[in-house]
Each structure stands twice: as C-alpha cells, then as structure tokens.
Amino acid sequence: MTIGFKAWALGGASVCALGMTLLASPSLAAEATATADADSTAGLDAVIVTAQRRTENAQKTPISVSVVTAKAVEDRHVYSLTDLNDGSAPGLTVTPYASRPFNVILNIRGVGVMTDTNQPSGESGIGVYVDGVYLGRPQGLDAGLYDLNSIEVLKGPQGTLFGRNTEGGALNITTKKPTGKFGMEMLAGAGNYNSYEGQFHLNLPAYHDFAVKLDGMIQSHDGWVKNPMPGQHDWNEASRRGVRLQVRWTPTTNFTADYAFDIGHTADTTIFGYVLRPANNVTISPLSLVATQRIDAAPIGAPLQPSLGDQWGHSLTLKYDVTPWLTLKSISAYRNLYQNQYQNGGTEGLAVTNSLGAGQNFERYSIAEFHQHQYSEEFQAIGHVNRLTFIAGFMYFHEATNDQAQAFNTLHWDSSGVGSGITPITYTPFGNSVLGPNACITTPAACNSSYNNFYGQPGQTTLVHGLYPNIGVDRASRASTDSYGLYGQATWTPPIFEDRVHLTGGLRWNDDDKRGELYVVNNALPYLPDANGQLTTTQGPIDRHKSWKRVDPMVNVAFDVTPDASLYAKYSTGYRAGGFNSRSITYSSYNPEEIQMYEAGLKSEWFDHKVRFNITGYYGNYKNVYYNISANYNTFATNPATGQIVVVTGSTRTIEDTYNMKGVGKVSGVETEFDVAPLPGLTLSGTYTYAYVKMPLFTDPVPRPQINSAGVVTGYALNTPTLYHQLYTPTNRITFAIDYERPVFNDAAVARIHFDGNWNDGQYSSTGDVSTGTKDANGATIYLPQLKSQAGAIFNARVSLGNIHVAEYGAQMTVAFWVRNLFNTNLLTSRSGNYSLASSSISGAFNDPRTFGGTVGMKF
C-alpha cells in the first residue's frame, strides 16, 4: 500500500527537477479535509467524513469518530501511520513492532491487540480501509502516505458496515481524486539525521472524459543509534518511496469509474533495544554500559541490514447514480505484498551469564520472509426514500499468505573476552573467524549449537528451503482466507418531535473460511494430532481447516436537541477472526474474539460555530480473548527398571499455543474533544481520553510436568491463574494544539504557527506480571507488578510562510520549518520487568529523538 498525503510542493529549478524525478515524501497537504467557510471569522470549519459509507458532516454522524485532516498531518510532519505514535490521533495508539517496524500495531479502546499478527493466520483487531479497499495485513502499514483527504478514526466495533477484524474500530483513509484540471504541486525538504523528503502531484486536463493524476513520494532518514560494526546499517533507519497513478472516467453525469495503481517500497532497520538493568545472575561486559536515556551509538556492533518491503495493487471503483434516490457502487481490488525481516535488536548493556564455560553466543539475528496477495469485491446500494436512508452491500475477500523464519546468534565471547574486553567473534551463516569463512558450508557439522543455533535443514522434509541454507528453519507455514459478508443499515426519521429523532438499525452476516498448513516449527516437523486432537508421536506437515459464521447487529438512536447539538445512544458488536498458531507443534487453532459495546454521546457546537464540544462514554463486554501461552518442549520415556517417566530431552524447543480466555473482560471509557476559535485566525483544540480494560484472571490450560533433580517426572500441575494486562492502552491521554494564521507583508503572504502536545500516563508492553518463582502458603505462585512505559509528553511545532505569489511562474510558494519532539524528551515507550525482583532484568526502548528540518513547496 502506498497511502498518501499531499503537501505544498516547493520551489526553484532544483526543486522542480526533484519533483519530476518523483522525490516526493510525505510532508503533506496544506489543504484540510475540512470544508472551509468563505469568511475565516465565521467559526470552525465543518469536517466531512464517510464513516457511514456516505458523505456527511462529522457533527451529524452519531458515532464516535476523530478525524486527522491533511492539514493536521502536515502540521505534525507525519510521513506514515507510524508517525502517529506520539498520540496525535485522538483515541488511536500506534506502535511499530520492534523487530519488524513495517508491521504496525493499531489499538483503539484497548481491544484486539493481544496476539502476534506477524503470523500468516494472525489478524488485527483494527480494520484499515484505503478508499474503500480493506488491507488484510498489518505488514506494510508503515508505507509512505501521500495525497490525503483524511484519516477517520472510527472508535468502537464497526461490525455492521466494515465487518471482520473491526472489534476495536477502523481507520477509514481517503485520498484526493483527479480533478480534470491542470495542477501541479511539488515539495522538497531536508533535516537532521540526513533526512530528505519530496513529493510530486500532477493533475492533467481532462481529455475525452478521462482525467489523470500522478503522485510520487520519497522520504528517508539515518538511524537514531549508530552501529560501530564496519559496513553495517544503523538502528532505527527508515526509507520510503512510492508512485501512484489514478484515472477517472466520467462518460455521463451519473456514472464515474476510478482506477488506481500504486507501487511502494520501504527499507527499515530494527528498533534499538536497551537493557536498563541486568538480572542478578548476569554481569555486564566491559564493552557495555547501562543507559538511563537514549544513546547515540551502541558500544557493541552487530550485523544489521534493512528489512525490505514491496507492495503494489490495483483498484477499480464504479459509481452509478441509477435514480435520484439510488446509487450503485462496486469496489474491486487486488494487492500483493512482500516483506523480509533482518532483525538484530542490539543492546547497550550486554548481559553475560556468570557461568560462561567455553563462552557465550549473543546478538540473535532473526530473518524472515512474508508473502501475501489478496483480492476483494464489494457491491453497495446506497439510497434514500422519503424519511429513510439506507445502504445494503455484499463483500467477498480472499487472501493467501506464507512465511518462514530463521534465527541464529552472530557474535560469541571467548572465555577470556568477558573479563578482558576482547572483541567478540563475528558469525555469518557461512562461517566465522575461528572456524573459517566457509566452514558452515564445507563442514556443516562444525556449526553445531555450541557455536550457533540449529544448523541444517529440517531432516524430514524438503518442503521448506531457508533463506540461508545452513541455518535451521524456526517456522514455516501458509494460510488462506475466504470471507463473505452481507450487510444492511438504514436510518429512519419518524414524523415526530419536529423530525429530531433518528432511528438506525443494521445487521451483517459474515462467513470466514480459513485453511492452513504448518510445515516446520523450531527446525522440526510438527506433531500430528489424533482424531480426538491429542498429540501423537507421528511427525509431518499439519493441515488445518476451520470456518466461522457471525451475525453482528447495530442499533442507534439519535436526538437533535438543537440544530447544533445532538445526543445519541448506540449498541454494536464486532469480532476478530480466528486462526492457527504457526509457532505451535500441533498448529493449534483458536476461535474469534468478540465484543459487545454500549455507547452514548453528545455532539455540539456553540456561539455561532466558534466552540465545538463532543463527549462519548462507552462500556463493553469482551469475550473469547485469545492469548499466546509458551512452554518448553520435552521428550519423555519410561525407565523399564523403575517404571518411572523420565525426561529424555528438555527445553530444546520453545513452543507457543493460542487459547481463548474463559470469562468476560470489561472495556469502558470516556472520550472528549473540543475546538475553539476565539479570535480570527486562532484555533485551540484538545482531547482527553480515559480507557479502562480489565481482563479476567487467565488460567493456563497446559498441565506442566513437575521434574525433580534426577529428571524424573513426579506429576503434572497447572500454573497459578495470572493477571494479564491489556497492551498498548494508556489509561489517560491528553492532546492539545494551537494554530494561528494571519496575513503579512500587506497580504502578500500568510504566516502560520502550529504547536501541539501529546501526553499519556504509560502503557503495558508485556502482558503478564513477573513471577517470583516462589509460592505463598496456599501454593499459589507469587507475582510482582509488571512495568508500564514511562508517562510523559511529546511536543511538535511548525512555522510556515505560505501563499507567496511567484508571478514569474504563476505559482504560490510555501516555506516551512518543522520539529518533532521539540524538547528532545526521553521516554521509554516500551518497558518490561520489575525493579523489586533482583532476578528480573529490565528492558525497553526509547521514543524517537528530536528531529527537525525545512521544506519548500510550490503549487501551480
């Protein structure tokens, strides 16, 4: 996907050349998605949304929806969805995976974020739509954005109109279409960390009812943390580029065909990891340090290259106004996605175990491939008859995915290196400086686990060929989904109370059919279950097939208290699709999650549209939440002499299974937004969000073998029920923004100032509390509280001088200076462990440092 935001293109001959070569990165459009009043003193602009699949004023839409306009994206200097991780999108939490920054975790109201969506069968709880096309994977959501209309954050379950995987909400992203009139915009800019950006947008004049638009973007910055290993990339690098072509055909006034093709590329490196405090059973090597804030360079280098992502797709949207009261619409799309992963988290504090023996391997390199293609078709009938507005539709979605992953250590301490600080030995998949550069190819047995991890292909299968032939395959699987949806929604305004009452009802039926096959898990064939699902000793690829059917209703009652204030109450449901866990030796399946939510709100404007205040309260029941449970893999045998069960091998593989939680979680909160235009040119805005999620105690369903010091199994026991925290969900969040503009130089230009701040009180990045390994008097394991990320605020600013007439070229120019994280605040955006427990290590990652730069844009 290449999504996009439009920015004023900037000037000079060199900038024009830059734009014409498609050096165009998302510094985004100066045109707001709002519909501006002719008189700037008239009050706040109306914000237009399509949250209910029709164009309408957000203040007249009786659901909780926040809108990130193109102007807001420009003011915050947002390149991709990842840049919304400062909290500037009200109610939306955006978190990149540390190992795969191109895979973005989205969270609204703390729902749908508890499991690994990297897997081919994994699903996100937030649906993402671009111009009506559903994007089936969170992979690739870090792609560049260009030519934006808006990002609508639809909060709460959207199961009726948007269907599967919208239990937490949806992002409805819309982009600008061809105008049929000549226009060109270019932008170029540069900043610290050797960043550069550019955008190019060209509208061609209509020809025989055809209008064409071309968009291009490019953006790049160096890493935040330097890698001292020669020839290797730094941590936290990012690069994006993309091109999109749109063609609009309007042969008649009542028919429109929109075709679009886009192709995009990303190259990101791993987010740098920090050891904030080592556990008491490790020491810190002399080459290391324990950081208390973000560092500029790692003390120990590591092999690291960018993870690459490529995606492209076609879409065709047909719209036919059959009658004045009925419109038919078709949205067809095909998309293809490829991602690879080269993940080495690095560390500034290298923990080395006290019992070194012959040395220790470290710096794990995780390598993976992910392929996906999807196609979808949606038909809609949108209309209105007298007092009734309605939409009915059908959607079909198909996707096929496959992945494989390998991991191995790349560095190794010799026994003297820990004490003397000798440079560690460097590994590659082919050999190392001790055994020789090609030893792993000429003598694979030499590269056993004493030097590295799981060398060699899985011996029992030829179905999988790893990216590196001398490294074992950690997992490999494929999955496909066919989903059908049939839905309808209607709003009736009865002839009572002066037409102030609006009754809405909706219903959607979904049928999800999912198939998958697990080839390898942890460099071995999986174990086949018997007819009752019990584990056997027979190994081989596992096929899975499951289907689920769902019906999701929605009821909404709205009342217009005044022409500018309305109340609404809503009941809705949604779900996240089930699947299979490709890290499980049995390829375990799990059922869909689901949520039922009650919501009530007020939307209001006051003082001749100079004040806007909206508030929403919600309460929901969260069921069948699925969690991943890890356990060591053990092989057992019976001692013929004693009849005792003994462990033959233990902890040689770490596996994972996914289970649906018993019990019901509770989700509740309050969301408020305000905008004030007290003076001409001045706008103040802000939000406050309170989110509370409480999950029932989770009982591990896997009986764990109790093994004594002689390796004898003395019995089986279940782990103590534990508290699981909802991830990436701050309890309290506050955002604010100040925007001011005024004409200067005798109206020859317009000066604009933007300043915003975004605060939250911390969130969990690890689900469970920390086990002490001891039990209380009742035999229950004692746990200590898990850490949250650090509470704190991030501030951004932008100043610009725009609408500068360049008469020589018949253009308008804009010059701007921007800064993100203005005060260079250090915040741990992820953190895990417990400081009270000496055996608990504390690890985490910091937010982005201060970045700044300037842009110049030209609009013709």
Task: Characterise the protein shown here.
The chain is mainly beta and 860 residues long. It has a single domain (13-859), classed as TonB-dependent receptor, beta-barrel domain (Maltoporin, Chain A). The strands form 11 sheets. It has a 22-stranded antiparallel β-barrel. The chain has a 5-stranded mixed sheet with strand order 4-9-10-7-8. A 3-stranded antiparallel sheet has the order 1-2-3, with no helix packed on it. β32 (593-606) and β33 (611-623) form a beta hairpin. Mean pLDDT is 85; it is low at 1-41, 353-358, 417-423 and 448-457.
Please render the helix and strand layout as text.
Elements: H1 13-20, E1 34-35, E2 46-49, E3 56-57, E4 65-69, H2 70-75, E5 92-96, E6 104-108, E7 126-130, E8 133-135, E9 148-155, E10 169-175, E11 183-191, E12 195-203, E13 210-221, E14 238-252, E15 255-268, E16 274-277, E17 282-284, E18 307-323, E19 326-343, E20 351-353, E21 360-385, E22 388-413, H3 417-420, E23 425-426, H4 439-442, E24 475-492, E25 501-521, E26 527-529, E27 535-539, E28 542-562, E29 565-576, E30 579-580, E31 589-590, E32 593-606, E33 611-623, E34 626-638, E35 645-660, E36 664-679, E37 682-694, E38 704-707, E39 713-717, E40 732-744, E41 749-760, E42 770-775, E43 781-784, E44 792-806, E45 811-820, E46 828-832, E47 842-846, E48 851-859
Parallel strand pairs: 7-10
Antiparallel strand pairs: 1-2, 2-3, 4-9, 5-6, 7-8, 9-10, 11-12, 11-48, 12-13, 13-14, 14-15, 15-18, 16-47, 17-20, 18-19, 19-21, 21-22, 22-23, 22-24, 24-25, 25-28, 26-27, 28-29, 29-32, 30-31, 32-33, 33-36, 34-35, 36-37, 37-40, 38-39, 40-41, 41-44, 42-43, 44-45, 45-48, 46-47
